[in-house]
Amino acid sequence: MLNPSARHLTAQACLQDVFGYNSFRGEQQEIVDHMVAGGDALVLMPTGGGKSLCYQLPALLRQGVGIVVSPLIALMQDQVDALQQLGVKAAFLNSSLNSEEFSKVTAALLRGELQVLYVAPERLLIPNFLSLLEQVADHIGIALFAIDEAHCVSQWGHDFRPEYRKLTVLHERFPHVPRIALTATADAPTRAEIIERLALEDARQFISSFDRPNIKYRVLLKANARQQLESFIESEHPNDAGIIYCLSRRKVEETAERLKAKGWDALPYHAGLDADIRHAHQRRFLREEGVIMVATVAFGMGIDKPNVRFVAHLDLPKSMEGYYQETGRAGRDGLPANAWMTYGLGDVVNMKQMLENSDAPAERQHVERQKLDALLGFCESTACRHQTILRYFGEQHPGDCGQCDNCLTPTDTWDGTQAAQMALSCVYRTGQRFGVVHLIDVLLGKTSPKVTQFNHEQLSTFGIGKSLSQTQWSSVFRQLVASGYLETDMDAFGGLRLTEAARPVLRSEVMVWLRQDQETPKRASKVERGARAKEAYAHVADDPLWHALKAKRTELAKEQGVPPYLIFHDSTLLEILNHRPTSLTEMGRISGIGQAKLTHYGDAFLEVLEG
């Protein structure tokens, strides 16, 4: 039922008059119209995409008060402050209020003076409060129920809140009040769980693109992480607001102190700090310019600061969902922003140890390991970062975004086509239901109990992968998942299965290029290569071919107006000289030649070698 005082207003007029916007964004208008008409909805929209408008505006247009279920006190405070600035009669009920304040808000609610009320799920589920809402429904009306951060309903999610699973009570006790569940972070299994747990089977789904084209993604291997971080901030964000995520409380405090000592306005935030300190730091971050928050994941959900220019990770997050949500706190105003992360083997070890030492049931630990592997695959992938992220959430992206490290400065790669075919064949021949550990055992020819149990030592793929180590095969499988050739079947306890994209690989119709690890197939160690290059360098001064290769590099550099080393380093030219590749495939195995450089310069240098 429409709000009598707003019947003369259309959604467009309300948008203009109350919120000050001339037009809706994306699917906002369709969602608003659907809610105003009394329909239920599930809305997936990226952080900064305008989710709150999708329930705030219908709450103003429909009869009664809009009830918003929100998991965080800070988020409620920010939303209510913003609405009050717009002249909307909004309030919240949570544990931050004293008894007098609570009574005042309750009285205003019963008198019909509120248009929007935010409540915590714990508060809403109290029997007395549900009875209060029934009084409101009978005498004033409830415009709608909005369940924000709906991914909290998923027990496999990174922000699980058990109270969210009881919110079906809204449908049971108020069957005629429309409900809208909203989140920025939900893969396909999480979406299915939201629908099931909140009884939204008949709700219309609005799924916006997960892409954040204004964010530039970069992932670096750890060298000296703090030094790398400082160089990044100094060169790109010396005076900007940003968030830096660390895994431990100790690292949060040490990093904040170090940055502060070097002149940045950095503040720590973690669950171990006094609540008043956390509140003060969060307030400064939200209200002041140029503040850097160094935090654990305890900070961030619901933070609505639009001009965060960068989000940095000094440690690996737990999952792609967590990474996507955390990086989504940058650039909410749509202007350019950076998502910068450094990771190393130690991160992987720490995260896996945390999983093994947790009290979570075995099934949950297994799912968490799969999520961690997906994130590692993202880190190691040579594909466009935007493309890999969107693929994880079931969305297609053409790649070549121009907004990530892999597209801007392609990494060193190796021809992993044969390794990919072995891996994909092994997945197929074992029945597309086993995890990585077992598949690697088969490829390496290990007679583990499981291999023996399923007679997999009889398979043609048994032992065919001995040229790679277990670590290398783990990387191969992660990259194949990240690149969309394999997918994890969560319903089959994390077993891997082929996608349609695997077919042309198995038929040798496409090549697969993989990120080059320190330990790549049939290549010498980094130290050995360096020593060999140094030795080779001493004997090339009089080699005409060496001078011809350098001349070609200089020629190409002049054409593009760049320094010669941006074409190829001397070490790369030395490998070309020593290995004398005769094809683009062989050229692609040279250290320092990624796919883009192979495409741009490969033929030119092959001509010199053919000379």
TrEMBL record:
It catalyses: Couples ATP hydrolysis with the unwinding of duplex DNA by translocating in the 3'-5' direction. Pfam families: DEAD, Helicase_C, HRDC, RecQ_Zn_bind, RQC. SUPFAM superfamilies: HRDC-like, P-loop containing nucleoside triphosphate hydrolases. GO terms for cellular component: bacterial nucleoid; cytoplasm; replisome. The keyword DNA-binding applies. Keywords: ATP-binding, DNA damage, DNA recombination, DNA repair, DNA-binding, Helicase, Hydrolase, Isomerase, Metal-binding, Nucleotide-binding, Zinc. GO terms for biological process: DNA recombination; DNA repair; DNA replication; SOS response. It is an enzyme of class 5 (isomerase). Its EC number is 5.6.2.4. InterPro entries: DEAD/DEAH_box_helicase_dom, DNA_helicase_ATP-dep_RecQ, DNA_helicase_ATP-dep_RecQ_bac, Helicase_ATP-bd, Helicase_C-like, HRDC-like_sf, HRDC_dom, HRDC_dom_sf. Residues 32-204 form the Helicase ATP-binding domain. Gene3D superfamilies: HRDC domain (1.10.150.80), P-loop containing nucleotide triphosphate hydrolases (3.40.50.300), Winged helix-like DNA-binding domain superfamily/Winged helix DNA-binding domain (1.10.10.10). Residues 225-373 form the Helicase C-terminal domain. Residues 539-611 form the HRDC domain. Its cofactor is Zn(2+); Mg(2+). One of its GO terms (molecular function) is DNA binding. Belongs to the helicase family. RecQ subfamily. This is DNA helicase RecQ. It comes from Methylotenera mobilis (strain JLW8 / ATCC BAA-1282 / DSM 17540).
